[in-house]
Design a protein that fits this description.
- The structure is a homodimer.
- Chain A is built from 20 helices and 26 strands.
- Chain A is α/β, with parallel strands linked by helices and about 550 residues long.
- Chain A has three domains: about 290 residues, 3-Layer(aba) Sandwich (Rossmann fold), CATH 3.40.50; about 120 residues, 2-Layer Sandwich (Domain 2, N(10)-formyltetrahydrofolate synthetase), CATH 3.30.1510.10; about 80 residues, Formyltetrahydrofolate synthetase, domain 3, CATH 3.10.410.
- In chain A, helix 8 crosses helix 10.
- The longest helix of chain A has 21 residues.
- At the A-B interface, helix 6, strand 9, strand 10, helix 8 and helix 10 of A face helix 6, strand 9, strand 10, helix 8 and helix 10 of B.
- Chains A, B: Its EC number is 6.3.4.3.
Chain lengths: ~550, ~550
Amino acid sequence: MQPITTIASHLGIDINDLEPYGKYAAKLSESLWDDIEARDNGKLILVTAMNPTPAGEGKTLTTIGLTQGLNRIGHKAVAALREPSLGPCMGMKGGATGSGAAQIVPSDDINLHFTGDIHAVTSAHNLAAAMLDNHLMQGNALHIDVNRIVWKRVVDMNDRPLRRTVIGLGEGNGVVREDGYMITTASEVMAVLCLAENLQDLKKRLGRMILAYSMTGEPITVDQIGATEAMSVLLRHAVKPNLVQTIEGDPVLIHGGPFANIAHGCSSVRATRYGLKLADYVVTEAGFGADLGAEKFLDIKCRQTGLMPSVVVLVATVKALKYNGGIKKDELTAPNLDALQEGLANLRRHIENLHKYGLPIVVAVNRFATDTEEELHEVISFCRGLSCEVALSEAWAKGGEGARALAEAVAQAAECSRVEEEFRLLYPDNTPLRDKIKIVVREIYRGADIRFTPKASRALSRIEEQFGHELPVCMAKTPYSFSDNPKLLGAPVDFVMDISDVRISAGAGFVVVETGTIMTMPGLPKEPAALRIQLHEDGTVSGLE
Amino acid sequence: MQPITTIASHLGIDINDLEPYGKYAAKLSESLWDDIEARDNGKLILVTAMNPTPAGEGKTLTTIGLTQGLNRIGHKAVAALREPSLGPCMGMKGGATGSGAAQIVPSDDINLHFTGDIHAVTSAHNLAAAMLDNHLMQGNALHIDVNRIVWKRVVDMNDRPLRRTVIGLGEGNGVVREDGYMITTASEVMAVLCLAENLQDLKKRLGRMILAYSMTGEPITVDQIGATEAMSVLLRHAVKPNLVQTIEGDPVLIHGGPFANIAHGCSSVRATRYGLKLADYVVTEAGFGADLGAEKFLDIKCRQTGLMPSVVVLVATVKALKYNGGIKKDELTAPNLDALQEGLANLRRHIENLHKYGLPIVVAVNRFATDTEEELHEVISFCRGLSCEVALSEAWAKGGEGARALAEAVAQAAECSRVEEEFRLLYPDNTPLRDKIKIVVREIYRGADIRFTPKASRALSRIEEQFGHELPVCMAKTPYSFSDNPKLLGAPVDFVMDISDVRISAGAGFVVVETGTIMTMPGLPKEPAALRIQLHEDGTVSGLE
């Protein structure tokens, strides 16, 4: 690892504009923005993927590898990634900082407390909750309906029994009521942090977040409870993007980590903006597959900010294609051209969808050792047949060197990109909310019809009445299928989407549309990853890989 | 503020042994310890006080001021203080970083997230809770008695309704049971962090903490639940002391902040040890008055570590003396020699108590503008009459310059101190637990008798049976009186102490003895401090003072 000051100086950042956190991570100060704001923007590259499969597609890996590759071929590139949440590191999956020769470091720190951003979100969120409950106890001057409190508490831990709780038991301990916890990354505060342009915007967004409804059905906001300023104070360092590096010394901005279902699932606007001023290329990713992640990146993040990607990189793997062609997880390493061809329908639909936004696409085939030449050739000619750029990526095995071909394809596509003229959002702002949902379902998921539960239908009407219909929708759907049924792989048609609930995130600025049950608090598995984590005598850590 | 690298270099710390957190705070690395371990120790100065009163005695202020004063008169001194908890900053009291001309900076950062130590304690504590509940749900192989879980969850927030909760409601959400939250500083993890000599010791202490009891009454430890290593990983940066500075540029180690009732209430052993190697004087403080704070500092921290103070500084104020002489809070500014003389009984008893440890005492009279010359003279001659050094401190108004006389008195007392020969603990380790409690009550509080509730009596017997009686006791008592009745001011006699419960903190290594109800989760007041906190456009903060 190089000192973070060295990484920063490669980006032309003055050491006085760095706020170090240990030797290998630093926050970029607000003063840096003043220095670079007037510069031209570099090009934004969005990395997305087919629908995720149990085999893992390597989207983060490809984002890191492509950044390494772009620097390798002489460009100045920076990656912009989400911060891993501590909870899941202790649960199922270990860390989330790439793998093989395409990793970001210091990975143990990044995976755990890092620079404290997620802890700051937890504190700010829970301060609002504590102030709300205190308001209830101290006389409830705002006439809050105790059965319509929509603001849960949060913790960055996989802690199943906190999903549904009762609080306030015992004399002198406030108002007894049902409550529950979400994992911190599901907090609207996290979404707000990631969409805020600056401290002023952050404050406005925090202030309009809805905590509860009054007896007469009026929304009760953070502003009304008086928590806006104190929450902003708690978040004042967390709004600054964090700089780290790849194992090959490329700069990486890692900042914010909102859920990709009930929120928009991409790293912060601030980090993207800083990156575009500091480098020729910012390579960023969006959560889950292109049907969820890219759609939200474009229809929420780009819509709110005016940002637009010059190129979309669509990650595919031979394994994921065969899985979408009906092969079980355990049999994916065996060559199977038929299944692969079957599964290409999934890739085709993502390509078609992304073309609807007027964006040039490069398909990145993340190569696994078990892929046959014949299989790889099949994918490549399929993409070429759709007039789509395609490149193999061997970033896992070879780092930046292995992503050279991909980097060249992306740089060339970016060079030819006419995104300024051709980019279009999926729907205009002033589309009624029901129509927005229909457009996403019809154009992106290709569902035949939509069914709203009475609850969802009532909620939609109430939201339009109270807040109008200018906001984009944020779909909360299973990532594994275009449909709301995780078992419908490939490119399903003729399905009906069930909309179970709709609610507004007034601070983040979108309307969350839930299909099925959305889990906002994961549990620990029978054998949590925490059991394998070790601290060695020399201070090093194992078990987080 | 000077860059933290400058402060460090005055202490002879190599920049490579610093882990910066922003520009004005840094952690001291483990490698620094290897470099300095062989050095001789400086002298340790313990700052304690009379029983606290609503007027505020200025113990932290005096600790900071004395450090400034010692440096001013040519010594190399460092302060060792506790980290403020974020929760109370949002509740009643604002920040906790000194005041006037004796403050530590950057105060807003120190008062809030600082270097993330308290957040790390929260995460480590709650990981054990999540793993415990997961164990229950996954079959309860350890046969944990769900009604004898002693490990609550924690949050660094004043959040009243979390005192008593029910968790695990709903299908698939684990085992339904009663639970509750404490504020993080009440976590045994915090006490362990502050008493651990190094990472290995930390691990051992974490591992033996008791989470619950089995159906057959056996303790269930963190080791048994498998959380020790992962908790250590979460705490691996938090164990490193933090370096900041006073507003006059003196070095300050600020590290750890355990409760002063159910825990021992002083900053970390690590910080004390680092300070003793880096400076001629380490000035540290203990929570509440000398009856609680100093007693625990000596009988717990010094007992466990072999550390001993060369001098004890006992902070007194004219106001506090008058309050102990029966004057109401609002009338303390009016001269009242009679009340002051009456209140001197409180000071006398603290002096007598500290003499029992064989320690030289300097009484620091923290001067307020309303003190009359006559009143001050009365206090000074009273102390001299007890052969006790005494000095006025004007640190609030004049910083280090105002503490020059105090610094000179302390340095001289330290020079003459024969602590190595004369220091003695209040009781030997192998005293039965009931006798230890009796000795503290008789020798320090001067109570006439003790009454154990049947619950406390049973708990004591069970603890002695399962763990022996080698551990010291940690008294949890009102700080406002020598007795367990906060209204008995001055130097009460003939009172009976009621012991309501006894429990073991097996990781911290003490037996907590509760008198009355101990509150481990504060609530927010009607007008929380958070309502006054503001973030200004230039990024500065107000309302935390």
